[in-house]
Amino acid sequence: MALTTLPDPLQTAASRGVSLPLLPTNDLITELMNFSAQVTDLLFSPMRPAQVMLNGELFPVELPGLPALIPADTERIAGDLLSNSPVALERLRQQGSCEFSFYLANHSRFRVSILAQRGSYAVAMRVVLREAPTFSLLGLPPSLTQITAMNSGLVLVTGPSGSGKSTTLAALIHAINEARPVQIITIENPIEYQHQHLRAIVLQRELYRDVPDFSTGIRAALRQPSKVLMLSELGNCECVELALEAVQAGQLVLSSMNTPRIAEGLERLQALFPSAEQPFFRARLARSLRCIVSQRLLPLKTGAGRAPLCEILFVNAKTRGRIEKADTAGKVLSYAMREGTGEGMQCFEDALAHLLKTGQVDLDAAQRFAGDILAEPLESAPAPRKPGNNRNGA
Questions:
Q1: Integer CA distances (angstroms), 284 to 104, 240, 268, in order
Q2: 243-246 contact pairs (CB < 8 A, 24+)
Q3: pLDDT at position 386, please?
Q4: Which residues pair with 125 in a beta bridge?
Q5: For position 381, what pLDDT does the model report?
Q6: What's the rounded Cα separation, in Å, for the pair 167 and 173?
Q7: CB of 168 within 8 A of CB of 138?
Q8: Angle (CA) 291 112 121, round 5°
Q9: Given this model, what pLDDT does residue 367 score?
Q10: For 339-367, what is each residue's pLDDT tens digit?
Q11: What φ, ψ does residue 319 adopt, rounded to 5°?
Q12: Alpha helix segments (H runs only) across the chain
């Protein structure tokens, strides 16, 4: 049943047109994008000025004659963005929220999220790079290139919302696309980066437009001659089960989860299953998992973008045994990652120590954006055993 108490954003857009003082929506987006080359998000909320996000922090942008947006303004913006997305509009009417892609010529693609709140709408737009990202552009640790040569297995990228998980997944898909003549299928909510066919064939399916749910999409991929499957998220027990089936069928499965550290990601996966089934699940996961990455983005000291802070666990004989026995507490895994630095592993503490030592980030930024995930106080974070590989990222 539709949420009938909400105003219809398309009717509001049609009735208000481009009446002053609010600019036409495309011009408004252009104005905010011109605020800085480092803008990563645009936000439109009732009773607040339009906002942009730079280096993880919000800044208001007061437009002439428009100190704050009113509910009718955000309704009109939402309606304009939704005018060519009927499926997303229906989800908004039925569920009170939706996500979809939006393209503005001469600027960028955006991942749009619209939420109903207090009888009106709030709009958030995440800027998506025009070109598929690369490891070097993002400043990702080079050890992650090992993933692109894997023939099968499960690879997870974890982190909180806004930590760059989908961008890292896109970089992995792009690297495989450049290197291997295989078929790649993605199931995304929504599609952000559009991949061209290079050495690989890349088939991108958008949730709700091309496929009704992740489970249906995974089953369809199992009937295709695909070698790589990317899921924008692993949200429930059925998806995890099917992802493991795809691994057993010889596919490399890439996906993401919203958890702050690797240990929490493993706990979240296990918690999806009843207690009696968890030992069997851990054994399956230990056999299937190849790598799990957790990441944050920290503002660079120069102000010119953000640097990825990553912890990386590759599964070897020792870490496989720990996963199977549920010996995956944060400090235990940090020790395992330190032992595995020669295999490309790293823990947050060592990676952050390297960013501080090389002057890429300052102590204040590290405290604000990463202090909650460190196993030890930041002042005593251990020095890395060997120099890290992180480079400045946009």
A1: 44, 11, 15
A2: 243/154, 243/218, 244/154, 244/284, 244/285, 244/288, 245/218, 246/218, 246/221, 246/222
A3: 45
A4: 42, 112
A5: 39
A6: 10
A7: yes
A8: 130
A9: 87
A10: 999 999 999 999 999 999 999 999 888 88
A11: -70, -30
A12: 9-16, 25-33, 71-82, 86-95, 135-138, 165-179, 214-222, 237-248, 262-271, 278-288, 317-324, 330-339, 348-357, 363-370
The backbone region for 106, taken as left when phi is positive above 0, alpha when psi lies in -120 to 50, beta otherwise, is: left
| CB-based contacts of 263, cutoff 8 Å, min separation 6 | 328, 329, 330, 332, 333
> What Cα–Cα distance (Å) separates residue 238 from each residue in 214, 243, 287?
9, 9, 18
What is the tens place of the pLDDT at every residue in 214-270? Answer: 999 999 999 999 999 999 999 899 999 999 999 999 999 999 999 999 999 999 999
Listed in sequence order, the residues at least 6 apart from 222 whose beta carbon sits closer than 8 Å to its beta carbon are 242, 245, 246, 249, 251
Report yes or no on whether pTM surpasses 0.70: yes
> Are the CB atoms for 154 and 247 separated by under 8 Å?
yes
What would you report as the CA-atom Rg of the chain, rounded to the nearest whole angstrom? 22
**Of the listed ranges 39-48, 267-276, 349-358, 384-393, the one predicted with least confidence:** 384-393
Q: How far apart are CA 298 and CA 80, in angstroms?
A: 33
- What counts of helices (H) and strands (E) characterise the chain? 14, 13
Measured CA to CA, the distance from residue 350 to residue 375 in angstroms comes to 11
* Coil/strand/helix, residue 336: helix
Instruction: Kindly give the residue spans of alpha helices, DSSP state H, lying in 83-132.
Output: 86-95
Tell me which residue of 305, 307, 306, 309 sits closest to 296, measured CA to CA: 309
Q: ∠13-19-21 over CA atoms, to 5°?
A: 120
Has residue 388 got a pLDDT over 80?
no
- Predicted local confidence at residue 15, as pLDDT: 64
Query: What is the DSSP code string of 209-278?
Result: TTBSSHHHHHHHHHTTT-SEEEES---SHHHHHHHHHHHHTT-EEEEEE--SSHHHHHHHHHHTS-GGGH
352: number of Cβ within 10 Å: 28
Residue with tokens 């997944």: 169
Count of other CB atoms within 10 angstroms of residue 293: 28
3-class secondary-structure state, position 376 = coil
- C-beta separation of 338 from 347 below 8 A: yes
The predicted model gives 45-73 an average pLDDT of 91
Give residue for tokens 């960028």: 108
CB 299 within 8 A of CB 59: no
Q: Name the band, by pLDDT with cuts 50, 70 and 90, for residue 18.
A: low
